[in-house]
Inverse folding.
């Protein structure tokens, strides 16, 4: 039942994305940036999805420390992995965009740099997990690290507000926005679809993780006999 | 109330069950000799009791409390495979450090007293780095006894000790038992251990293979338990 | 009171053990001086542009050299399984953590205070003009480096690849603090006081220190005993 | 032949122990990126002046990453007294030394080769234009760093003063090699070939490598058996 | 020719004379038990014989050569306090590494053979990091015997071994002695050692306090030598 629901959600997410791609392709090229600007319809949603995933990771890490229930540890890994995937997409779309607009792959401004550091930090989380063998210890360390790491997330978000950056100023949730309403709608749908996609991926990873756990405990039982 | 109660403890390393459903109790004033072949799980059990790692299943009660409570820790002394003293500090400094950590009021007196007990007063200002193996082990003994714990967890405490130091340790343990303190020790030097033990527990591949009082028979022939209850 | 006493015991032990061998402190110092010397060859310290980033460079050097000290902080407990004895002792993890953090702080600060005049000479920087403000930034920035370094030293003490993992996870988390310290130092060394816009950086630094100290103290027990 | 086989056995052992976990390479990469990010706070990589010394920067990164690897080289033999067994084995000290130096060389070079393209992207440096010359300088400079690092790692492993002496002697001694490598790299990355005056630096580098390799091989036996 | 000759060896640590004018000889095929109280200098002597440190005065001859010659080293096997195997490699990898270092042609076969002898074949692919203390010591034994040295220098080889492993080691040593190889071992487990020893040397504060053949009397009462020649 749960799986069917997941598949359904996934299919819906893809359907929305497909529809939006079609619509976006129909938008006229922007004055200054040509067709390159259209990447924003994927750039922004992937950051939103990444943020959602990482927040989930933070919450489940805290829950794990409070309850010591390994279910939350599994959720934390799943969410972090998906989060890192979307961070990568965010960085990649950003870079792809930067190349035609700025003429270079990378510039060192607060937004880009803090985003890169965020990525490094959560990649570090995954590596830390690999390096610790004892399951309880691994879960504890990972949870602690996740809490400490999350502090960078708001910094990334606010970096364009706190510092002057090359990165475009905020368009949404700020007064100076100049986005046409129908574009905003498409953007909204895309964000929804991406977040749904993230949820589906997290659930799938979570199921895998739980299956792995069950296999492990079965194997352990076999070893104990 | 039992000084130590181990209830259905399981501990895994990866897939390998190092401890399988261990049940044990120790009354105050008793001395448990934990024996078993190499890799049986003695060290793992002692470390779990001491609270260095949590059991995967089951519970451990020390003097009625959990191993990680501060009150409990104050009453436990541990000697592990490592000797847990600092190479860069002198014998006296090491003992004073631990005396302070345990909040003893007369750190220096206590430290000197235990250096004398273990025959190290001559080298009290020598850095541990310069000690022979047996001298280190003596210092570890002094460290564990320093705060007069009511539960002593000793992992192969006789290792590297010469005959005289073994006699001293046996005397110290006997005194401790007489004062109603409890001792759990693992060892392969059965002769030395069984002289003191009131109970014997044999582990075999992480399971309790034998658990019972220590009989004069066993003391006379230390190989007996292995011969009778070992895997053959 | 009791807590403070425990912190001091740990602090005294670590400082004493380190000063017996001076392993980490010497390494850190030599490393710091080497980098400063090397860099002074690479760019012309006479130039005005150099002055613009000399303050930043200083913090890179501090961060690297500090890592050498921090690496050893919990690693020192490994050889004879001393960590076991500390964990078994009836002191809270937070006392252990604070004691070690303070010991590291003293050691790192000592290295920095020696490196600072060397830096001044090699780069013609008048760092002493705004002495107390520089000291303030130094104190705040170093505490940030230390508290995170100590926490992660505890986190990585038992795992494989400790030496590589530690800097890898420490530096990203340190960046906000380092950034703030760099900005302030550059300003100070170019003769500007901390005022106006620059106070934002100072606030960032203070916030960072408080936030991570609190988080570490709360979380360290979980790390140490699992 | 026999000698070569022994060198290879040691080499294989060290590389295997280090690579037991593949994360080592990942960690090294992440680490290199992190350092580059940190440096970007100090100098603006956009600016033309930065290009003037980006090559120097690169070698600082290498020196730092290299130290991490080299520190471990003989230190790895400490925990179970493994060095005893190596010293007791019927192989000449020079085979032991070369095996370890080569293992370190591979590891350090691997990190460097990964860091180089990242550096190129993040600092807008066209390092690949004079690819083979850059590789030559890299190979020579790295060998210099490795041979000295390994030698002193050995020298100081026995005496307790391990980490004291290692840095205090190594780092100053490394300076000529690093300087040469830096100068050459800066030139190469600014589009100049190694020619004219620059060949002096190349000669310095080659001479340094040969001299210290020979000296180390001759002296290592004394070092290993007090 | 003597398998081992120690001639007037002095060794100082700073000001402290850890060995004072030690003279010893061992014929091929004999087994010397080196006994003495903690800190007497046993480890120092064994390490000096093995060539890890040079004597300050005096000379050491092994099979007629100096300890540091390659030919000599090929014929010496050493077990020290540390076990000298790598935590990050498996048991098999460790043994194969040493087999290669000693230039054995059939590294793998040899390694497997010694794993079986020491009862580690079941865990041959396990990393040493995961071994219990006794399993490590067994591996150290395997490592020392691997290249069939004609002189074995063993520092407390029975430490941490269970009864079965002790029996195995004793058998191995007996076989080695029967083949004309020489054994020098220090230990505090006198009972186990004296069963094998042909000679006994007792050190006392760096000096030889007793040196003579091992008599049945001593085997019957292991404490005898200490009682008779110890400082009291
Ligand atoms: C690798 C490079 C880049 C990174 C890491 C990055 C990062 C981010 C992040 C984290 C967000 C979402 C957070 C927020 O809504 O405030 C964002 C939004 C956005 N990005 Fe990027 N970006 C990159 C490159 C670019 C480029 C090159 C452009 C355009 C020239 C661009 C334009 C935008 C715009 C317009 C938004 C929406 C801003 C808003 O409404 O808040 N980004 N980017
Ligand atoms: N860190 C670890 N990872 C994996 N397995 C381990 C680890 N530590 C111990 N083991 C395994 O657990 C089992 C029990 O080990 P333990 O050290 O408790 O044995 P022991 O009874 O103390 O043996 P010994 O008498 O040799 O000291 C052994 O089979 C060992 O291989
Ligand atoms: N590195 C050192 N520096 C200074 N003194 C040392 C050093 N190593 C050993 N000693 C001293 O030399 C003496 C002999 O030590 P050694 O280790 O040889 O004793 P041992 O007979 O092996 O003792 P044990 O039975 O305890 O192993 C001891 O008094 C010791 O304190
Ligand atoms: Mg054990
Ligand atoms: Mg000894």
């Amino acid at each position: 039942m749960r799986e069917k629901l997941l598949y359904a959600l996934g299919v819906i997410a893809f359907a929305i994305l497909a529809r939006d791609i079609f619509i976006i392709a129909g938008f006229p090229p922007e004055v200054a940036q040509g067709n390159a600007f259209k990447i924003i319809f994927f750039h922004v949603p992937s950051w939103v999805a990444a943020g959602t995933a990482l927040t989930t990771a933070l919450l489940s890490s805290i829950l794990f420390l409070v309850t010591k229930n390994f279910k939350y540890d599994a959720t934390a890994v799943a969410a972090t992995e998906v989060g890192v995937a979307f961070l990568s997409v965010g960085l990649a779309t950003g870079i792809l965009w930067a190349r035609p607009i700025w003429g270079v792959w990378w510039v060192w401004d607060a937004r880009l740099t803090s985003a890169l550091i965020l990525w490094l930090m959560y990649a570090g989380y995954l590596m830390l997990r690999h390096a610790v063998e004892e399951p309880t210890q691994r879960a504890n360390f990972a949870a602690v690290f996740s809490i400490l790491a999350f502090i960078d997330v708001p910094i990334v978000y606010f970096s364009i507000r706190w510092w002057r950056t090359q990165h475009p100023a905020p368009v949404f949730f700020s007064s100076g926005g100049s986005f046409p309403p129908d574009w905003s709608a498409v953007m909204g749908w895309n964000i929804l679809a991406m977040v749904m996609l993230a949820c589906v991926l997290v659930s799938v990873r979570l199921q895998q993780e739980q299956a792995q756990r069950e296999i492990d405990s079965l194997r352990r039982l076999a070893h104990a006999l | 109330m039992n000084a130590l109660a181990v209830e259905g403890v399981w501990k895994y390393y990866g897939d390998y069950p190092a401890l399988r459903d261990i049940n044990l109790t120790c009354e105050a004033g008793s001395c448990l000799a934990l024996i078993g072949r190499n890799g049986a799980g003695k060290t793992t059990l002692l470390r779990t009791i001491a609270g260095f790692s949590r059991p995967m299943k089951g519970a451990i009660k020390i003097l009625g409390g959990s191993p990680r409570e501060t009150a409990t820790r104050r009453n436990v002394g541990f000697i592990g495979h490592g000797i847990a003293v600092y190479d860069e500090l002198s014998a006296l400094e090491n003992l004073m450090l631990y005396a302070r950590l345990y909040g003893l009021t007369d750190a220096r007196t206590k430290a000197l007293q235990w250096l004398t007990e273990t025959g190290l007063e001559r080298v009290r200002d020598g850095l541990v780095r310069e000690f022979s193996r047996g001298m280190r082990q003596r210092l570890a003994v002094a460290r564990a006894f320093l705060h007069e714990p009511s539960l002593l967890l000793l992992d192969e405490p006789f290792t590297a000790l010469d005959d005289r130091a073994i006699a001293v340790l046996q005397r110290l343990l006997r005194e401790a038992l007489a004062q109603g303190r409890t001792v759990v020790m693992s060892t392969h030097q059965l002769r030395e251990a069984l002289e003191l033990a009131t109970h014997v527990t044999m582990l075999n591949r992480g399971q309790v293979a034998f658990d019972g009082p220590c009989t004069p028979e066993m003391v006379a022939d230390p190989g007996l338990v292995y011969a009778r209850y070992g895997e053959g | 009171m009791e807590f403070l006493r425990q912190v001091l015991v740990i602090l005294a032990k670590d400082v004493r053990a380190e000063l017996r061998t001076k392993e980490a402190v010497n390494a850190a110092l030599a490393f710091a001086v080497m980098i400063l010397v090397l860099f002074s060859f690479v760019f012309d310290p006479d130039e005005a542009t150099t002055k613009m980033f000399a303050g930043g460079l200083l913090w890179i050097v501090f961060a690297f050299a500090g890592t050498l000290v921090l690496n050893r902080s919990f690693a020192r407990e490994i050889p004879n399984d001393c960590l076991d004895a500390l964990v078994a002792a009836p002191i809270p993890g937070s006392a252990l953590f604070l004691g070690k953090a303070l010991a590291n702080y003293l050691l790192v600060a000592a290295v920095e205070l020696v490196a600072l005049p060397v830096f001044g000479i090699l780069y013609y920087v008048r760092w002493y003009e705004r002495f107390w403000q520089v000291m303030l930034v130094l104190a705040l920035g170093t505490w940030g480096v230390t508290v995170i370094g100590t926490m992660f030293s505890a986190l990585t003490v038992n795992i494989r690849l400790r030496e590589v993992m530690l800097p890898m996870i420490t530096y990203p988390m340190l960046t906000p603090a380092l950034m703030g310290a760099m900005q302030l130092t550059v300003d100070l060394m170019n003769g500007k006081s901390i005022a106006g816009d620059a106070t934002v950086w100072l606030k960032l630094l203070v916030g960072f220190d408080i936030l991570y100290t609190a988080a570490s103290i709360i979380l360290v027990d979980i790390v140490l005993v699992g």
Summary: The pocket of adenosine-5'-triphosphate (ligand 3) is lined by residues B 130-135, 160; E 13, 16, 18, 36, 38-44 (CB under 6 Å). Chain A has a mean pLDDT of 85. Chain A touches chain B through eight residues (CB under 8 Å). Chain A has one domain: 34-224.
